[in-house]
Request: fold
Amino acid sequence: MLTTAFEYLRTSTDWERTVLIGGLLTVFSFLLIPAFVVMGYLLGVFRATMHGDTERPPVFDDWGALAVDGLKGYVIAFVYGLVPAVVLGGTFVFGFAGLASGSDAGALTGGLVLLTGGLLTAGLWLAVAYVLPAALLNYAETGRLGAGFAVGDITPMLTNRAYMRAFAYALVAGVAFGVVAGLLNIVPVLGAIASAFVGFYVAVTVAYIYGRTYAEMHVVDVADGNAIDENAAI
Reply:
């Protein structure tokens, strides 16, 4: 799966153009709209691969549609990220307040809050990283924003072995990217720019993995894009 996923983007005759555009958009993702377009592209990879199209990666063409689609994807991600973000914020506020209290008891309490809150936040972010792809897959399949929060549709995916395997593959790809990015960033500025291009390529690879996994877990009606057997692989 990892090898096939890594080669997916290169099955396109103009894959270099796609990587060039995707990398540049990633570089300027701090402007938000480029980030929305990249998210829209990745959702397009979800749709293509979940419906069996593994040899024709999407292209950057309808920019407006990609941006709107990506914005919806970011809304879903934002909502899922609220809980760990709130916990992290509370950890810093109460933890550092305790440390700054000037008393030994306050410092001890603040330290415990920072430690416990930090571990809890890390666990929550890991949970979000596990659940979010399933939410985005469900949104990509239906086109409805609310589908990203449809517990009844998402939960069966989370307990499916194929999905667990996909998450493990995604972690491997993420760790590999982290190592490569770390090496590239030895070179100031240019390394960060190169990391953006590599990051886009890895993101497409991961999107392919999840899209193909969705196809394993569901029997998809290619004609209308609807899943007709949600627990086929469970």
In short: Helices lie at 2-8, 15-27, 33-50, 63-99, 104-142, 151-158, 161-184, 190-217. Residues 12 and 56 are 6 Å apart (CA to CA). Residues 2-82+131-229 form one domain.
